[in-house]
Amino acid sequence: MSSPSLSVTVLVIALVLVIGTVAPQAEAARAFFVFGDSLVDSGNNNYLATTARADSPPYGIDYPTHRPTGRFSNGLNIPDLISEQLGSESTLPYLSPQLNGQKLLVGANFASAGIGILNDTGIQFARIIRIYQQMEFFQEYQQRVSAIIGPAGAQQLVNQALVLITLGGNDFVNNYFLMPYSARRLQYSLPDFSRYIISEYRNILKTLYELGARRVLVTGSGPLGCVPSQLVSGGGNGKCAEGPQQAAAIYNPELVQMLKSLNQELGSDVFIAANAMDMHNDFINNPQAFGFVTSKRACCGQGPYNGLGVCNPRSNLCPNRSLYAFWDPFHPTERANRYIVQTIVTGSTKYMNPMNLSTIMAMDSNT
Ligand SMILES: *[C@@H]1O[C@H](CO)[C@@H](O)[C@H](O)[C@H]1NC(C)=O
Ligand SMILES: *[C@@H]1O[C@H](CO)[C@@H](O)[C@H](O)[C@H]1NC(C)=O
Ligand SMILES: *[C@@H]1O[C@H](CO)[C@@H](O)[C@H](O)[C@H]1NC(C)=O
């Protein structure tokens, strides 16, 4: 007896196969580039003599290989999940020896944990790839791609690419607020420091544009005082640290304004502001609504809130990472990263300004 449900099943499977093979290939044509700090570093620091690294267990415990990769996450990080949305494989760290030949056409990740907008941010981590050097590597990358597909092809690949840049948090947490009397704190009031780094950030973004970037997601800072590491110094009882919170409140609106003015100057919506502050606040203020048991205590760490020092093989480790918003004292879990990326893709203008990634992808595929 021929079963109608069987033939429907076969049809559905056939459709899934067709869509599954066609759609990702169409999107895989779009390259993806990543710049910034540990929130988006996929392993560059593994190749450097620095203390800012995530290359020992339990980092990567939920990664497909269950091994550390240099990502500051239990599993996938934000760039991985954006690549997933683009239908392509994850971009390799620029320093990876595997980044060669056809792999170069997927894009590259230049991010390096510990860096900031300023060159003096993260000096305590010794050798890391500062942002101006990430840009130099981007130029070098373009020369390597030119050698494969020609200069015109390389330029088109870069012009049509999606770019993500995540920068700025370390300029506060690992520079301005690092010590009670940091050099930058003696030099600048908080509003003046914010204005200063925004003006430097503007130059960085203009350089990125000059190097060919035409669609750039720029994430603001999260609520800097509410990460587990800062709760330790926030005076106990789970209150967010005041200074870093104030910094984020001043810096983020200025960043949005700067991006708006830059787009006006360029006559195009090149720079898209991603409101990381509100995305984080959603699960920090109401962790239960997101299936988290806590947004204060890190899964991996030691001391109050597991917020002291760094996550290492001897740290406390929670059994189920999906129940925690924060993986280590500074970085979200894969589960929280998934919420952030979902919001980047489909969020309203409260989160994505002037538009979300699904709108960008629809617009760019029509041109
Ligand atoms: C950082 O250093 C590079 C190379 O020395 C320099 O070109 C750049 O202007 C510096 N950036 C800032 C903000 O001082
Ligand atoms: C971890 O928590 C998630 C979310 O509640 C749940 O779906 C999953 O089954 C849990 N995993 C384990 C191993 O308990
Ligand atoms: C964001 O994406 C959704 C589709 O997922 C769309 O309906 C909505 O209008 C978009 N919002 C903006 C502001 O682009």
From TrEMBL:
Pfam entry (one): Lipase_GDSL
InterPro entries xref list: GDSL (IPR001087), GDSL_Est/Lipase (IPR051058), SGNH_hydro_sf (IPR036514), SGNH_plant_lipase-like (IPR035669)
The entry's keywords: Hydrolase, Lipid degradation, Lipid metabolism, Signal
GO biological process, one term: lipid catabolic process
GO molecular function, one term: hydrolase activity, acting on ester bonds
Signal peptide feature range: 1-28
Family: Belongs to the 'GDSL' lipolytic enzyme family.
UniProt-listed PANTHER family: GDSL ESTERASE_LIPASE LTL1-LIKE, GDSL LIPASE/ACYLHYDROLASE FAMILY PROTEIN (AFU_ORTHOLOGUE AFUA_4G14700)
Protein's UniProt name: GDSL esterase/lipase
